[in-house]
Structures are given as C-alpha cells and as structure tokens.
Design brief:
By secondary structure, chain A is of the alpha/beta class. Chain A is built from seven helices and seven strands. Chain A is globular. The longest helix of chain A has 19 residues, at 175-193. Chain A has a five-stranded parallel β-sheet with strand order 2-1-3-4-5, sandwiched between helices. In chain B, helix 5 runs antiparallel to helix 6. In chain B, 40% of the residues are buried. In chain B, strands 1-2 form a two-stranded antiparallel ribbon. Chain B has helices spanning 20-25, 36-48, 50-73, 78-96, 102-118, 125-141, 149-166, and strands at residues 2-7, 10-15. Chain B is extended. The longest helix of chain B has 24 residues, at 50-73. Classes of the chains: A alpha/beta, B mainly alpha. Strand 6 (134-136) of chain A pairs antiparallel with strand 2 (10-15) of chain B.
C-alpha cells in the first residue's frame, strides 16, 4: 500500500523561488496538502516555532541565516518545538566537506542538486522508513552519524551515477540541434585558442 | 527511549524517538511507498514547470552575460560580480538536469569550476563566462535534452578544456 501523505505538514526553506515551486509541486503531486514556505533561515525558524512540522526541507546557502544555522536552531534552541524533526538539506554545493558539515550539524538527509523526482522521493522514503536514533554528547545533538551505509553522503561521484542520465545518439538530434551544438563548440574552441 | 554509554570522546546518550512520520503516512507493507502512478504524477507535474524554467533560464543567462561585460568594464568590481555569476550558475545548473537539460547543468558546473579554481577573476574571465552562456543559450534555443550525444559531449569537453587553459 502506498503512503498516505495528506496528513503531513512540511516546511520548505529556500531562497530560490524556482526550487520552492519545484518542491511544492512534487510534494503536492504525491499527496501532501499542508506545505509552508519560508525564504530564508530566519523566517524558516519563525515558521517552525509556530506550527508542528513533520519534515523540513532546507537549502544549504541562504542569507542571513543558512540552512546549517537553521538546523542548529531546530536541534538545539530552547524555542524549538521538536528537535527531532527530520531535516532534508538540498544543495548545489555537494562536495564532501559540505556534506560532512551538514551531517555534523544534525541534518538527516542530504539531496544534491540537480535532483530527479525519483531521487527526491527516495530521500523522503528513507526518512520515513529508516529513521536514525539521535545522539546527544557534549558537542553534538542530532541523528546518529555512524550508520554504515551512510545515506548522507551524496557527493558528486555517486550523484553522477544515480541520476538517470539520458543518453542521446547523434541520430536523435535534429539537423538544427546538431548544427547548434557544433557551432557552439567551435565558438568555445575559438575563445580557448585566442 | 534513551540509553547512555561511553565512547572515545566521552559519554553519550542514544535516544530513539517514536517514528511519528511513519505513523502518519501508514505502512507500505513491504511495497514501495511511492507507486509508479504517483511517481508518474509527480514527474508530470515537474514537466509542467519546464516552461517556467526555460523562461527563467533566458533571463538568468542574459543577466550573467551582462555581469560578464560589467566585469570587463569595471575590474575593481570583478570579484564581487564573479561571485554573483557563480551563484546564478549554480542555481540554474542545479535545475537543468531536473528538467532534462543535462548539458546546461554540465556547462554551469564547468563555469563554477572555473571560478572555484581561479580564485580572483582576471581580464579573460568575462570572455570565459560568455563562452559558457553562449553554449547554454545554444542548448536552450535548440532544446537539446539529455546529454546531446557525441556532439554534446564534445561541447562539454571543449568547455572543460577552455577552463583548464584559463586557470
């Protein structure tokens, strides 16, 4: 039986309107009815404190408060209504150091851009099916980082292989498309040779 | 439920909060939580946004081109302008593949790599940026989806060669 997501309340925190719209569209399509939007970490935390959210999507880089700062607030602020809330961080910066940083601040899952619908739903399913216990030490509070098949690592190499790349044969392109690509390459080569 | 223990870096508490998310969405009984119909619905909804993306891409590409010319004209502002270009390229590159435009993601990744590698922009930077925006525009104008086959790969290779040469 497929999930019934109509009772979930999800918060999306991202400064990019297109990403906000994209996430909202996908979540609506799979049945989520209550989706709130915030444009940065400050507004995101204010919204988070007002209502009970089941899940938060946040961008990594935002001004004035980043997704990392927002995660810190959700996990450790006295104002936070639920420090255990799952957080999925979405970012075009997917180098290992940033993924590590996200993990060290208590992010639940990391989703590298560009992502496909399948990939987004796969992350959602992981959060639902495989929640990690939380660890509290003097220096850390968040999901247990020791899971062996680290789902948080989403670096460039794996991303390349997991995305469903569309292989196109030259025969699949129209004459106009072939000409456009050829002309563009020649123009780039010219800049390189000048 | 919580248990305490001692690790290499001191004591810790392991807490297993109830899985409220699962309670709310129900059990998938071993079946995929999202069936093929639901995935197709979501993919269709994303396809409907493709036009918005294409429109936005036109605007952003025009903006990057303008910024590249400003970099040429005002070298003292070039570093700040370059950060802005990089940020826009990362944003649109992060959406390209989602809408099937892999070559746009590749071109943006190449441009971001250029700025990451050079640190401070120089006199050639404007031209390098425009070579990338021209490529993005060509892909968009002729609506080349997917990897563009052999010609697409050649274009990406040329962009990377240009970056290698300029850094």
């Amino acid at each position: 039986m497929a999930y019934r997501l109509e009772h979930l309340r999800i918060l999306i925190v991202d400064d990019n309107p297109h990403i906000r719209q994209l996430l909202r569209t996908v979540l609506h399509a799979v049945g989520v009815k209550s989706i709130d939007i915030a444009e940065d970490g400050v507004l995101g935390f204010e919204a988070f404190c007002r209502l009970e959210y089941d899940l938060v999507f946040t961008d990594f880089q935002m001004e004035p408060l980043s997704g990392i700062d927002l995660t810190d607030l959700i996990r450790t602020s006295k104002k936070s209504p639920n420090p255990y809330t799952p957080i999925i961080m979405i970012s075009a910066y997917s180098d290992e150091s940033r993924v590590q940083k996200a993990r060290d601040h208590g992010v639940t899952e990391f989703l590298a851009k560009p992502f496909t619908v399948e990939r987004l739903l796969e992350r959602l399913q992981k959060v639902i099916e495989n929640p990690r216990p939380f660890v509290k030490t003097d220096t850390y509070f968040g999901p247990d980082r020791r899971r062996k098949d680290d789902p948080l690592y989403d670096g460039p190499e794996r991303r390349k292989t997991e995305l469903q790349k569309v292989d196109v044969s030259v025969r699949d392109l129209s004459a106009q498309q072939r000409e456009a690509l050829r002309a563009s390459r020649e123009s780039v080569d010219k800049v390189a040779s000048d | 439920m919580a248990e305490e223990g001692r690790g290499n870096s001191g004591t810790y508490q392991l807490i297993t909060p109830p899985n409220l998310l699962k309670v709310k969405v129900g059990n998938s009984d071993g079946e995929p939580g999202f069936d093929l119909r639901t995935i197709a619905l979501a993919a269709g909804a994303v396809d409907n946004l493709a036009n918005d993306f294409e429109e936005r891409l036109k605007l952003e590409t025009a903006l990057i081109t303008k910024l590249s010319k400003d970099m040429d004209a005002s070298p003292e502002r070039a570093e700040r302008l370059a950060r802005k270009v990089e940020r826009i390229a990362r944003d649109i590159g992060g959406l390209g593949t989602t809408y099937g435009y892999e070559l746009i993601t590749e071109a943006c990744e190449s441009l971001c790599r250029y700025f990451e590698e050079i640190g401070k922009p120089n006199r050639s930077s404007g031209e390098v940026v425009r070579a990338h925006t021209d490529a993005i525009r060509a892909v968009m104008k002729s609506k080349v989806r997917g990897d563009g086959g052999a010609l697409g790969k050649e274009l990406v290779t040329s962009l990377h060669s240009l970056v290698d040469r300029m850094i």
